[in-house]
Design brief:
The protein has 19 helices and 13 strands. The strands form three sheets. The chain has a six-stranded mixed β-sheet with strand order 1-2-13-12-10-11, with helices on both faces. Helix 13 packs across helix 17 and helix 18 (476-490) packs across helix 19. By secondary structure, the chain is α/β, with parallel strands linked by helices. The structure holds glucose-6-phosphate. Glucose-6-phosphate binds at residues 138-141, 191-193, 196, 199, 251-253, 338, 472.
């Protein structure tokens, strides 16, 4: 392997056009494919050749990717700015295995919570009184369960539906309450800190609504909490007997496989939830043990580093050809952008290279009729991840064949294009890189595998960029200012605290609010 540094990436020779790479190497479609668990990952249409891959894998080795991966699995405090271990992989370890954090094997405690969740979920599923589960959370305490609930439509209990309330905009809770019957609704207040203003505001509104309808005594049967902060849960008025815990070594955006997934477990049942966790674990084991040159999260991460720092691509599209994965791009947006949207390295110095990409996407085929024009003929190159399945979770085979033919066609068209010198507006230059991830079917296990794959890609890229992928200080300033401004909208404005533009906005709102 070639040893280069990150800064040298932009000096490497660009690979040939994908058409020429394929023409020169009839084995490319076989060599640039690997399996991780049940996922088949094909990066043959990525903008790389053997020489670039060798440099990238050399960079991974010299940047300590293996060491930092091992440090994570050893429970070391690799989240430096918060001085915490990064233990989400422990959440999906089989019973009886070991993951040590701060001198303690945490796996027994993980399974204790899973057992409690399982017993509770089973009671809710069989009792027949609860028909609507409302998860109130935001960010990491919302996106994961909301995405997974939607993705696992085919596995859900037929008579229990879930809703997800996150936005402090009253329209969110209002629309869910308008569609709820208090006697058959269970609220899960999901908040790691139990201090998040949006979640507490929504939870209070929901609590008031329930009490107004059924009386204070009903709270015990209709509210549970998921949190690391028992004191605040009790203060809010939820009995800590009705609380499912987790730990500070689980980051919000890495928590769908903790008690934060309770709504998903109620929907799909404890056994399917165990399959979901087993799926994560399969890919964890692949990431932990595969050599760098067969390690799919490492390979995809390094290709992403090449796009960001070698070729200067700013964004990345995630395009699931599965309507049930409609929220997957939004989920990955948080996972990736909150983790690697950083400009300061672990030593506190300004980074010298671009870090995480802007992640976006929509399911196919909808996106094709919207933004794919730019993907095919725009001036900007957007590397794409396509995700598809051999079987749809429905009975409409014709739809599925059409869907998958579109995925294959888009991947082909982007990579190879079609020349038309006579009519430039019909010319497709191709050479637009993409990766194709396939699996038999979108099951709980496969969903877990997909999430773990992206988690580890983010981890490896954070290592290369030398940043802390596990903190999120960038969300603090806005929160702090909002807390200052809230009383100014109602009581006295404090113009000394703000710039003239902000003061004008506050003044406008005050005069119109009145
Ligand atoms: C995720 C972030 C953030 C967090 C929310 C909700 O990694 O930390 O999105 O999940 O701010 O926080 P609480 O769960 O503490 O309410």
């Amino acid at each position: 392997m070639n040893n280069i540094d990150l800064a040298a990436l932009s000096d490497l020779d660009r690979p040939a056009h994908l058409r020429d790479l394929f023409a020169a190497d009839p084995t490319r479609a076989e060599r640039y494919v690997a399996e991780a668990g049940d996922l088949r990952i094909d990066w043959s249409k990525a903008a790389v050749d053997d020489s670039i891959m060798s440099s990238l894998l050399g960079l991974a080795a010299s940047s300590g990717v293996e060491e930092r991966r091992d440090a994570m699995f050893a429970g070391e405090h690799i989240n430096l700015t918060e001085d915490r271990a990064v233990g989400h992989a422990a959440l999906r370890m089989p019973r009886g295995s070991t993951f040590t954090i701060d001198g303690e094997n945490v796996v027994p405690a993980v399974h204790e919570v899973l057992d409690a969740m399982g017993a509770f979920a089973q009671r809710v599923r069989s009792a027949g009184t609860i028909r609507h589960v409302v998860n109130i959370g935001i960010g990491g305490s919302d996106l994961g369960p909301a995405m997974a609930y939607r993705a696992l439509r085919a596995d859900r209990h037929p008579d229990i539906r879930c809703s997800f309330v996150s936005n402090v905009d009253g329209a969110d809770i209002a629309s869910v309450l308008a569609d709820s019957d208090p006697a058959s609704t269970l609220f899960i207040v999901a908040s790691k800190t139990f201090g998040t203003i949006e979640t507490l505001t929504n939870a209070r509104t929901a609590r008031d609504w329930l009490v107004a309808e059924l009386g204070e005594a009903a709270v015990a049967d209709h509210f549970v909490a998921v949190s690391t902060n028992a004191e605040r849960v009790a203060e809010f008025g939820i009995d800590t007997d009705n609380m499912f815990g987790f730990w500070d070594w689980v980051g919000g955006r890495y928590s769908v496989d903790s008690a934060i997934g309770l709504s998903v477990m109620i929907a799909i049942g404890p056994d399917a939830f165990a399959d979901f966790l087993a799926g994560f674990h399969l890919v964890d084991e692949h990431f932990r043990t595969a050599p760098l040159d067969r390690n799919v999260p490492v390979i995809l991460a390094m290709i992403g580093v090449w796009y960001a720092n070698g070729l200067g691509h700013d964004t990345k599209a995630v395009l699931p050809y599965a309507h049930d994965l409609a929220r997957f791009p939004a989920y990955l947006q948080q996972l990736d952008m909150e983790s690697n949207g950083k400009s300061v390295d672990l030593a506190g110095a300004r980074v010298q290279n671009d870090t995480g990409p802007i992640v976006w996407g929509e399911p196919g085929t909808n996106g094709q009729h919207a933004f794919y024009q730019l993907l095919h003929q725009g001036t900007r190159i957007v590397p794409c991840d396509f995700i598809g399945f051999a079987h749809g979770n429905h009975e409409h085979q014709q739809h599925h064949d059409l869907l998958m033919s579109n995925l294959f066609a888009q991947s082909e068209a982007l990579a190879f294009g079609r020349s038309n010198d006579a009519e430039p507006h019909r010319n497709f230059e191709g050479n637009r890189p993409n990766t194709v991830i396939l699996a038999e079917r979108l099951t709980p296990s496969v969903l877990g595998q997909l999430i773990a794959l992206y988690e580890h890609i983010v981890h490896v890229q954070g290592t290369i960029w030398g940043i802390d992928s596990y903190d999120q200080w960038g969300v603090e300033l806005g929160k702090e200012l909002a807390n200052q401004i809230t009383p100014e909208l109602i009581d006295e404005p404090q113009p000394d605290r703000h710039d003239s533009a902000t003061n004008a906005l506050i003044a406008w709102y005050r005069s119109h609010r009145a």
